[in-house]
Amino acid sequence: MANEQALTKALILDTAEQVFRRFGPDKTSVVDIAKVLQVSHGTLYRHFASKAALREAVTERWLNVSIAQPLQEIADRTDVQATERLRIWFDALISAKRKYALEDPEMFAMYTAVTLDAAEMIQFHVQGLIQQIAGIIEEGIQAQELKAGSPGAIANGIFMATSRFHHPAHASEWRVQAVDTDFADVWHVLLGGIQL
Amino acid sequence: MANEQALTKALILDTAEQVFRRFGPDKTSVVDIAKVLQVSHGTLYRHFASKAALREAVTERWLNVSIAQPLQEIADRTDVQATERLRIWFDALISAKRKYALEDPEMFAMYTAVTLDAAEMIQFHVQGLIQQIAGIIEEGIQAQELKAGSPGAIANGIFMATSRFHHPAHASEWRVQAVDTDFADVWHVLLGGIQL
Known about the structure:
- The structure is a homodimer.
- Chain A has 10 helices and no strands.
- The model of chain A has no long low-confidence stretch (mean pLDDT 94).
- Chains A, B: It holds the Pfam family TetR_N.
- Chains A, B: Keywords: DNA-binding, Transcription, Transcription regulation.
């Protein structure tokens, strides 16, 4: 249906995401995606230089829409204090990751693979999340709710310290019941480290 | 060389470790190991029920000798206070993991695979490490150097919070230079959470 003029980035990404889900990212070729778009693979290559680039772009969009944007809304809330907002933020991050690992395994597997292959894009995504946390922490310091310190370093510390609960390399451990006790133990020490 | 009488567990594990290293755990068969031991594979199966059991036993011994025992010596030191001993303990754990990931990739790959397959053995190993930390923390609480609390829960919290730096699923990230800054940020928040 698509002609070259209608071939927007959004249409390519929508189609690529569908095809990746249907065939799996390993078995999908650029030709498969071009076929569904009814364009030549040469045309598609003018927009994305490789299958890896397409896979990365689809994952990047998914991370923004499914993870970063909903978390930004929590970070921006003005109705809850910093400490409680941090907890809501981490609970949302962790439950989103667990939900997608279980309910959207195709996309989650692609995201896990991209985490290893597209270090720069993932680094950018993670930095965005850490900035959200840093914003909450800065407000908490100003409100004399949290200990003084560098909001960026504190945010980086608590993000890295909770990796076990949101980094895709640990997805197989999220089904074990002990994971909730483990998070409670981690959170207790972290809170003690940041609260005034 | 070996006859059935001389076929000790240590000899089997020494030989299995050598053969796993030489051929890689995937390509090694129980028959390969039996051949080097000059026993029938039936004889070997009387000691270990499967290749998976052999692989698990070799990894378990390696974890004890290379990780748990040297760390126990640090945990038992009486010449340094709890806070400093905790840092020495974690530095030793993290540098041992990094060293083996780089310098003994065959054994490290086997350990990474076993981490997914032999959850019970790994769980037992991890619980042993957490008990070592809990011992240090208990002494620190008694010395009024650390905040009061459950030593086991605090130890579990700081072990889980440092997963990014010692869990084999993160080995590919240990080569990035930012990992040392990340650990410093995590350690700073954790120390703030446990020190009196």
